[in-house]
Metal ABC transporter permease
Amino acid sequence: MNTLWEFLSMSDANVRYVTLGSILLAASSAVVGCFTVLRKRALVGDAVAHAVLPGVCLAFMLTGEKNQLILLLGSFLTGWLSLVVIDFITAKSRIKEDTAIGLVLSVFFGVGILFLTSIQHSGNENQSGLDKFLFGSAAALVGQDLVTFGIVAVLLLLSVVLLYKEFKLISFDVAYARTIGLPVRGLELLLTTLTVLAVVVGIQSVGVVLMSAMLITPAAAARFWTDRLGVMVVIAAAMSAFCGAAGAFVSYTAPAMPTGPWIVMLLSLLAIFSFVLAPKTGLAARLLLQRKVRRQMMRENILKTLFLLGEAQDNYSHSYSNKQIRDRRELPLLRMKEGLLVLRRQGLVTKSSQGWALTDAGKKEAQRVVRLHRLWELYLTQYLQVASDHVHEDAESIEHVLTPELERRLEELLDYPTQDPHQTIIPQQP
């Protein structure tokens, strides 16, 4: 705690530059990255990040100096050119976009490495430090860099705020955006330019190799926590800002640890955490939901089996043993016993020395499931022309998820039937 307080109240200007610069870079990149992810162009960020290297090298080769503004301008031009080339290849050839991205990434990056190697053997004394564009060096940030980061961050955030509705529309429904007269091509070009700008500014901190992670990872992590774009943007920016500050803190407490890779590492950990533990959409939540659904299906299948056994004897209060239930329908023994105990606690079945029997409430629930099954079988035969002896399996799956609204719709379509395709009576609503 004392170390963290020391970090927060530090007087070293360079450490403050690194911390604030990392926060601004991470947050602004995440905001733009949300739209890149939603437009399914995540790999484009990686291509741009690798394509800026030849621009940096060319700018240095032409001027012979490491002027920050000129280097950024050179990297912006080649980054933007890479996107133009990707679009041109995709539009004018049979090559798909993912292949075009791979081609552009490898070619531009290879040319950049070639230029960098040439510069390193040129003897120019000013070339020292150019290799940091490969892997980044956040610790080398100075006050002028912070001003640049601040200007770019404000520009990116202001653009997103002013054109939020337009960017949202082209991210989800380009066709509708064109229909209502939005300049879709211009908006896509602007969003692409903002993406390039975010990448160009960030390479000095984390390098071309890791910059795509800064753009994509927080957006991908935030997507697990919400279905609303505005909330997703805020979560992604907050995650990135936190990881930016945390990465700077790690470098401050352990000088041998680089800031940029630690920012990406922390973002990756957050992404893994989100993938596994996010509510509703996380892996754990989905597994729990699947388990809940399987158990519910098992209980409904048990009720349906008891109903069918009673229907055959016209006696729904009769008791049946585990063997009789399993003879009527093959059910896993352990899961069936577990399901029967749950149904007993719910008051849907009773247990006697002769076996298990439906209660009045259980009969109503079983009758509902059987009714949905037979309605769906009839729908498949009448509207989809499926043979009556091939509809049972489909009905077995769908009967557990049909809602009351769909049930009423089925009845209307089928004109309130009384028999299924096998001439078996369809139970009426309990």
